[in-house]
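Design request, tokens follow.
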């Protein structure tokens, strides 16, 4: 089992545990349950069907999709916590993918003006991204993450065993988010690309190696968050570096429902590399291709549609697009650019 402690300059701390299999999981959950502190779990209903018995806490299940990542769901959680008599000392545990951890983190941040939360992420994306770094949020009027806070979970326990219930294809769809952090740091990208291209979920030692890559991805994200917890930037790129590929990804997601977020991020990474005049574009494309992932803007989206979608990006300032570009593996730059200067 690996442990990474995230400590921010604002004296917030989060302990992140990453494990391969369920060996320690049940013992740890039982121990947490035996503690004096009361734990209330919010569990993705699909995860509850598959793994419900592993969580010995009072629990409420929620539908985990974007349509339910709303203030209404948060309100239902607050009603349930009140009905359970949860006090300010209670811990709210979010069990599921990024939808569940985002909703749960937000509910914990506002219940009785804030109680502690912790996460058991059960998707690859939640393990390397959504459960780490304290950002939470809900969609409002269909707009993604319009309301939320930044508040670190007390702890996160990621067990790779949860990933066994995904098909190879479903699991690999989130790989671009992992490639993203490795490209940012300039470490493990080639190793991970090679490993995931040559192996599949049935390969011996697959989940052990997955644990290694998850741990390193978490370590890199923690490093970025430690330096800039609240995305203040302070003149530098700060936490915004994690948006690599995302300006394009969000635009693609706006224009078509064909791709998952992770797949759109993969295409976005190639676009970010093009705009940074990066020599490694071919290697990024090859990595995505070898993992069965898309790497080109889909033909059905025109450049005009992409531009129109990018013009609505939350990060734009004074009519300029704040684009995070990849100059080389490990070399990122933020570029203020006009729409016409963007290369597609
Ligand atoms: N807070 C952050 O920093 C941050 C970062 C990245 C993404 N996010 C958010 O995360 C969300 C996406 O996260 P996600 O991809 O985990 O989506 P998700 O939570 O919707 O989960 C994806 C699907 O997998 C199912 N699922 C979960 N665990 C499973 C398991 N072990 N086996 C089988 N099925 C399982 C869910 O029921 C759901 O149908 C988005 O809402 C995004 O905005 C937040
Ligand atoms: Zn993302």
């Amino acid at each position: 089992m690996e442990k990474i402690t995230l400590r921010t300059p604002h004296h917030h701390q989060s302990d992140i545990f990453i494990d391969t299999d369920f060996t320690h999981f049940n013992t740890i959950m039982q121990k947490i349950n035996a503690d004096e502190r009361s734990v209330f779990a919010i569990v993705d209903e699909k995860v509850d069907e598959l793994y419900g018995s592993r969580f010995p806490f009072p629990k409420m299940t929620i539908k985990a999709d974007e349509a339910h990542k709303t203030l209404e769901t948060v309100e239902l959680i607050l009603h349930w916590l009140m009905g359970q008599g949860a006090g300010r000392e209670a811990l709210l545990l979010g069990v599921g993918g990024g939808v569940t951890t985002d909703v749960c983190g937000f509910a914990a941040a506002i219940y009785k003006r804030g109680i502690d939360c912790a996460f058991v992420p059960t998707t690859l994306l939640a393990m390397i991204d959504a459960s780490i770094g304290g950002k939470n949020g809900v969609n409002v009027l269909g707009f993604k993450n319009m309301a939320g806070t930044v508040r670190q979970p007390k702890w996160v326990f990621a067990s790779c065993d949860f990933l066994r219930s995904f098909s190879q294809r479903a699991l690999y769809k989130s790989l671009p988010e992992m490639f993203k952090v490795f490209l940012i740091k300039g470490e493990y990208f080639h190793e991970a690309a090679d490993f995931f291209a040559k192996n599949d979920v049935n390969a011996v030692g697959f989940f052990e190696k997955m644990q290694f890559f998850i741990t390193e991805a978490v370590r890199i994200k923690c490093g970025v968050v430690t330096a800039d917890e609240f995305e203040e930037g302070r003149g530098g790129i700060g936490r915004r570096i994690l948006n690599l590929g995302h300006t394009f990804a969000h635009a693609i997601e706006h224009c078509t429902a064909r791709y998952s977020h992770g797949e759109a991020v993969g295409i976005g990474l190639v676009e970010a590399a093009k705009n940074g005049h990066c020599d490694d574009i071919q290697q990024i494309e090859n990595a995505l291709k070898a993992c069965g992932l898309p790497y080109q803007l889909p033909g059905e989206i025109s450049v005009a549609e992409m531009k129109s979608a990018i013009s609505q990006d939350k990060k734009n300032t004074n009519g300029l697009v704040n684009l995070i570009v990849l100059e080389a593996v490990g070399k990122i730059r933020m570029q203020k650019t006009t729409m016409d200067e963007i290369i597609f």
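Comment from the thread starter after seeing the answer: thanks! The chain has a mean pLDDT of 96.
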